[in-house]
Batch of 2 targets.
Target 1
Amino acid sequence: MTQTLFSTYQLGRITLANRIVMSPMTRSRSPGNVPDAHVAEYYAQRATAGLIVTEGTSPSPDGLGYARIPGLFSDAQQTAWKVVTDAVHAAGGKIAVQFMHTGRVGHQANLPAGGRVVGPSAVAAPGEMYTDSQGMQAHPVPVAMTEADIEKAIGEFVSASKRAVAAGFDLVELHGANGYLIDQFLNAASNQRTDRWGGSLENRARFAVEVARRTVAEIGADRVGIRLSPAGGNGGMVADANTTALYLHLAKEFKTLKLAYIHMIDHSAMGAPKPPEGLFAGMKEAFGGTFILAGGLTAATAEAALTERRADLVAFGRPFLSNPNLVAKFQRGETNLTPFNFKLAYTPGPEGYTDYPAN
Ligand SMILES: Cc1cc2nc3c(=O)[nH]c(=O)nc-3n(C[C@H](O)[C@H](O)[C@H](O)COP(=O)(O)O)c2cc1C
């Protein structure tokens, strides 16, 4: 069958109604790190996506680096997420939870009691971040993780994945992109370790591969995807001479693990560096499984990516945020989309969240 935006797609054990994925987007609408009823309403409004990927959700108290982001490591969070997945399923949609451990991109003022800002090495991310109680603050120097800290963090991804299945999620997406913990291990700018977790590209890849391997062992390969951003650009991540080899190595490892998908980010339309030439095509071939493309897509460029077999699924972030019925708009051929209001991206409350027009 021809691949088009509106054709169905079999992703492991689930059938997606179309090829349009809602990209993960942090919205900071979960006071106390527990999603409330507005979160269920927000995702249910967007349930005509073939697949929704939630906002970055922490598998650990240590990974709640931003203000008011949700977690999935407590019973209360699991119960709250079940309300969200039920609402999306009732509206006919499918939903993956994105596990984002913020690692060094965090601040003590945003973390719950006992939470620690950790990273592969004691190297601070450049720049500042927002906290509710102290305003803008410089990124702190993270605690360099010990072998025991690494084992604990991997275990947190695994137990959160078990909770994700219990909370009704169709899949888990590991956030290996944009400068958060998994990416911090991949990238030499943040990983200066000389043990088996740093140095060679195989060592830098080890944390990502181990998290994926252990999560797959817990909930099954057809329930686990991963998001990657080889060009860097966010959180002080920079590409280096080994980037292409590192990501081709990852694609092969994820093929061996039979991951449900790889979700590739090209943020060059947002001013980030361009991914190395030919890398995405090389990874798609090496992986052989479902390949999702994201970043600055329009209906036309997404359709071209599908037709040219550069992607199996295509993801939209900002357009979906401000157009709950994006799929219907695309079907009607509308190009005049409601613009995304960045000022209300991370503010508390329903404004700029559940009040975008549904037409
Ligand atoms: C408000 C906002 C929050 C975001 N939060 C996340 C996140 O939690 N996890 C993630 O992987 N990407 C995040 N992103 C990146 C988007 O998923 C997407 O890759 C990016 O917006 C580019 O796609 P677009 O041009 O379709 O918007 C965020 C983007 C925006 C605008």
Note: The chain has a mean pLDDT of 97.
Target 2
Amino acid sequence: MKARTPLTFPRLARGYEYVEGWGMAHGAHARVLRPRDVEAVREALALARRERTTLALRGGGNSYGDASSADRGYVLEPTRLDRILSFDAHSGAAECQGGVTIEALWKHALPRGFWPKVVSGTMYPTLGGALAMNIHGKNQYAVGTIGEHVRELDLVLPSGELVTASRGHESELFHAAIGGFGMLGVVTRVVIETKRVHSGDVEVTAKSTRDLREALEWMESRRARYDYLVAWIDAFAGGAASGRGLVHAARHLAPGEDAAPERTLAVAHQELPRAILGVSKGEVWRALRLLNHAPGMRLLNAAKWTLGMHEEAQGPYRQSHAAFAFLLDYVPNWKWAYGRTEKRGLIQVQPFVPAARAHDTFQAILAESRAAGHVPYLAVLKRHRPDPFLLTHGLDGWSLALDYKVHPDTRADLWRLADRITRLTLAAGGRFYPAKDLVIGREDARRMWPAQALERFLALKRRVDPEGLLATDLSRRILDLSA
Ligand SMILES: Cc1cc2nc3c(=O)[nH]c(=O)nc-3n(C[C@H](O)[C@H](O)[C@H](O)COP(=O)(O)OP(=O)(O)OC[C@H]3O[C@@H](n4cnc5c(N)ncnc54)[C@H](O)[C@@H]3O)c2cc1C
């Protein structure tokens, strides 16, 4: 597997760019096409067909692993299709081109009194990329995945044909393309609903938890009360404290609760601070780099847990939507703290496990990680529910997103641990999320999705893309298209 950065790859063939996953642990060389309109998307598909090569779709490149890269061939990056075509000020429905980012959408919607119904922990994904992965937010248990709020989408099929799909028209394509990781066509337009909000702030409650059981029970019993629930977990803590953490629960404000909504709904109120503890945001990753080793991260996690108890004692507080939703965007390029040379970076492993098996499975995964000497530097717990999309990662249960440092010396050992985590998760009836994955294989993919759903998806793929024009390193790794 190639994993070099542009800084270390001197002999890049003419016309090729190095395209890497967000976690930097995987990358590949490809010719990148950036169409400005639907016609240029069609031309790109035709070009790849003429040259008998493949084409990988890529949005903002925020998937951690190999979902939007492909070794050789073309990468099609429709990020210039970035116009918001219309916004219904009454219903909050937005009609956007596929390259519009979540950031652009919320900045357009919020001053009009609306907020996207589902956002990821970063605001930089495009809607095309977000739909292709069917992203979830901290409110997935309550509102489902992003696809559940899409009214219709335009898909340019590998043949060049443009199909408008919705629940009522081309329903199978609609339910397969959402969550279909860019295998069936290019999303060039989407009509998506946003939610009416009465303030630019949410009210946040912090709860410090002694162990994983307490976090799960506290969150479970408050699902009806809060719009958002998410827990940070200190993966370094072992023994009776295994899984200790800090839950953040948030609710939207009711009309009248915010005395000055015109002020909080303004984009300026949402802007993330320019400096953190006096250090310019752009430089914070350098400081984090000094702590990017097991003892440093153990210290940082312990400090966060201690501060969490103080946060809880202070009681509920208000925070802007952007600050609550996009905490990880506070520190630009924080991933660079993991190293920026060949085969470094991070992988995220995010097992989704049915509710009844979540506690024991996550505890086993945390214990395996500690025993193997690969403790996740960041661990995040969320509650989920099933959704109607064909290749869904959603289920009635929980996910634990685990960030592991990748280093050339320990990479093979880390992959062995990841494989043990895969076994534990699948044995519990769990799944993985293609946006985060870099480790599972075809047999694992076959086990995690219902056989009938996978078969229907593959049949559709063969029908709309008989030549296998759309392919990524991820699809080659987890899908068997030969059958
Ligand atoms: C810091 C961070 C936090 C995150 N938090 C969350 C989270 O809370 N919840 C969550 O669900 N995800 C989360 N993610 C993952 C992220 O939301 C997804 O990976 C998302 O798909 C990225 O969108 P993108 O535009 O960057 O697409 P890419 O990552 O470039 O591509 C994603 C997939 O979409 C396909 N694709 C791209 N554009 C199109 C298109 N126009 N038409 C069809 N297919 C296309 C690609 O082939 C690929 O399979 C996070 C990522 C980061 C880096």
Note: Residues 22, 56-63, 67-68, 78, 98, 120-122, 125-126, 128-130, 132-133, 135-136, 181-182, 186-187, 328, 435, 472 surround flavin-adenine dinucleotide (CB under 6 Å).
